[in-house]
Amino acid sequence: MQGAGVLAVASAFALPAAAADPTVARRRVKLAFDWKHALGHAADMDKDFGFGRDQRTYAKTGGSESSPIALAALATFDDSAWTTVQVPHDWAIDLPYDPGPGGFKDDQDDPRAAHGYKALGRDHPENSVGWYRRKLDIPADWAGQRVGLEFDGAFRDVVVFLNGIIVDEHDGGYTPFTVDITDVAKPGQDNWLVVRVDASLGEGWFYEGAGLYRHVWLTATAPLHVVPNGAFIRSEPRGSGAVGKIEVAVRNQADAPQNATVRTIVSAPNGLEMARAETPLTLEGWSDGKVEADLRWPTAPLWSPADPQLHRLTTEVEVDGVVVDRTETAFGVRSAVFDARRGFLLNGEPLKLLGACCHQDHAGVGAAIPDALQDWRIRQLKAMGCNAYRASHNPATPELMDACDRLGMLVIAETRRMSSDEESMKELASLIRRDRNRPSVIAWSIGNEEQAIQGNETGAAVARTMKRMVNRLDPSRPVTAAKDQDFDTGVSRVVDILGFNYRTPQMEGYHARFPDQPIMGTETGSTVSTRGEYILDVPGHIVPAYDREHPWWASTAEDWWTIAAERPYIAGGFIWTGFDYRGEPTPYARWPSVGSYFGAMDSCGFPKDNFWYYRAWWRPEPLLHLFPHWNWEGREGQDVEVWVHSNLDRVELFLNGRSVGARDVVANRHLAWMVPYAPGVLEARGWKNGRLVATQRRETAGDPAALTLTIDRNALSADGEDVGMITASVVDRRGRPCPHADDLVVFEVSGDARVIGVGNGNPVSHEADRADRRKLFNGLAQAILQAGRTGGAITVTARAEGLRPAVLRLDAHTVRQST
Ligand code: GAL
Q1: CB-CB neighbours of 659 under 10 Å
Q2: Which atom of ligand 1 lies closest to the CA of 392?
């Protein structure tokens, strides 16, 4: 990672695989490879493979071979001209930009801006429907099992066909859904899975992607099985051990009644069994039942962001001595309490929420994030000092949630629509059922800035209905909502914790008026900045990276954090945002900006200077960060504003060996000097308790001479999915970083791997993301390297005209693979 000391987090924790047991029917196979993809059409049926043209066909299950519901749904359809893609896949990232006619009265009114000017949506029917096809191997010995598909989420409005028959339709782009395909699947024969995805209508005011942008799974279970997300454990520390209240929902999808034993086993993080219960259950044919168990065990290492210890709950369904189903659920033992006076308490101790709001996209790949990149993003946030993540404003993909459980990141989980209509309630319920075992989740957010209802009785009524259901499905966690006005009324009077979006100074008055309600900053700060830039350039859409510029509703990092840090009753805050994201271009809500400037990191996860502000005050390690760069050719003798973020006691600044002055550090504030520019070496020296503990230099670099490459990993898994994050940069002939370098870098890969996306963090760049080349932006570019499935040595070479190339070597190790 960029410069920061790499945080020591446990390497990927995997739950020990259940012992291979041929009597257990449950299987789950990721469908990652060998998908074919083509665009259809949202307005022209001919270009949409005939979908919906003939109502007599559409009205009949499966249509007919001569007149199918859609040509592309036929097994015999020739898809050889379609592109082979890997899922997760986001076709929106490949679309051209459409700046539109412009001329809106208010830039915020331009609907194209929201999605980052990608040519998607109602104005672009030719780009807004995507089709996916894949042959499905359903083994012959799955006959007699319940066969299903699981979608972690697809954007959006999905029609799923199996063997020409529509087996499901699903709207929401962020909610997982399962499809029972037992009746239509043909075990042992060729099956064709076809998915039509229609992204014409978005759900958010930000870039959302399009397509099968999350994982898809093929599943099998015995007719008698634990229902999806049907195992729920509420655990609590008790002395040095723990207690757990367990519910397991079981379903019998067979005619005959079943007498079963449901076994629940708790295993400690070290894998040792700690407690078990066995409960008899009789189920009529085609019915659901539930068992409950209370377990207690004597020692339980607690889960926390600093030490994310994961327990495991195993549930087994046994009939006549044979285990027919088994599920494994990771959980953590911890207590999490919001207190109106003491803020948030984890395991009994106050823990300030040092949070970041994040959207789900990343440079290079859009919304289709490989699992290893989810981990990398969470690690970047932890390196900044974050212990909390707000999944704004939608359910995150489960792999992101897994990363939070595994790496130690608290989460505010949020539903997309604040509404009590049936569909919204279903979406909320699915979020809660999916994530209620996770130790990371500390609160459910039922809404964000619903201006029409947040302050009135309608909002309160909607919130009450939503909260009632949340409490029923998960009695253990509080409910929150994020508001930006009308703080005293409406929704505020219903939720357990009130979330303030910005307006941090208003929190004190609110606390005085409502001293019994916990509060937190659900969106805070929101400095806008361009990484590596220090001079405002409005026509160029460049914002200096000092902690200064922010929209009218927001504040600087320093302004909100100095308030929150000093007030224990403020549970903490979630900065808007951890990373720059596509869409919602701010502060320039117009072309050529295609992304936001809010991030403490840019869209590649390269730290901006505010990253170091937070790291200084959110992490305990001594830190000193000096900026800007020291290449101000042509400005000799003119003042340059120099800042330091440091958590030491005192910092002295030197230019070419001569002191420019020393400053005492004031907690949670930056230091600043005005320094007349002269080329050479700018150096900051930091003291703690009278000892020099850190120095940092910025040196005037000469002409670019050579490329450099670094990667976050030295080995990848050869599973076809693992990724390494590569940083390319440029140095002069003496190895000094060149802060303005903008060379076009071409990445060549030999061995079994490929670059799946590139980026540089420039919010006005319109270069292709899924490419093998990218211009550096202020000295940096990123390439995402994905391993193939063969393994072996991989070499990445970066070339740029006139510069010495850089070479990186790593290995990919063979592992078990998806299909
Ligand atoms: C908030 C909103 C966020 C984002 C942000 C931009 O009002 O909740 O989603 O739009 O403003 O400043």
Answers
A1: 11
A2: 9
In a domain? residue 64: yes
Would you call 523 a catalytic residue per the annotation?
yes
CATH number at residue 531: 3.20.20.80
State the residue for tokens 């999916």. 434
Residue 748 lies in a domain: yes
E-only strand ranges, 536-638: 570-576, 624-627
In a domain, 625, yes or no: no
Token pair 């999905």: residue: 158
Looking at the structure, do residues 363 and 453 belong to the same domain, yes or no?
yes
For residue 349, indicate whether it is catalytic: no
Domain count across the chain: 5
162 and 302 together in one domain:
no
Residues 519 and 602 in one domain: yes
Domain-located, residue 125:
yes
Q: Ligand 1 centroid to 414 CA: how many Å?
A: 14
Tens of pLDDT, residue by residue over 619-664, are 999 999 999 999 999 999 999 999 999 999 999 999 999 999 999 9
Residue ranges making up the domain that contains 679: 632-699
Catalytic pick among 399, 450, 523, 549: 523
Q: Whose CA is nearest to atom 7 of ligand 1?
A: 449
In Å, how far are 33, 95, 496, 518, 635 from 444, measured between CA atoms? 34, 34, 10, 14, 52
Which of 107, 454, 576 best tests ligand 1's pocket when mutated (most atoms within 8 Å of CB)?
A: 576
Is 289 in contact with 283 (CB distance < 8 Å)? yes
Model's pTM, two decimal places?
0.96
Is residue 636 classed as helix, strand or coil in its secondary structure? coil
Give me the mean pLDDT over the 467-487 stretch.
98
Enclosing H/E stretch for 347:
none
At residue 106, the pLDDT reads 65
d(CA 73, CA 76): 9
Distance 576 CA to ligand 1 centre (A): 8
Boundary residue ending a domain (193, 213, 233): 213
List the residue whose alpha carbon is closest to atom 2 of ligand 1: 449
**Please, which pLDDT band fits residue 107 given cuts at 50, 70 and 90?**
low
Residue 706: CB atoms within 10 Å = 16
**Pocket residues: Cβ below 6 A from ligand 1:** 392-393, 448-449, 484, 501, 523, 526, 551, 576, 584, 586
Residue of 247, 318, 449, 641 with catalytic role = 449
Residues with Cβ < 8 Å from 22, sequence gap 6 or more? none
Ligand 1 centre from 156 Cα, in Å? Answer: 22
Examine the fold and report which residue of 653, 673, 699 is the final residue of a domain before the chain moves on: 699
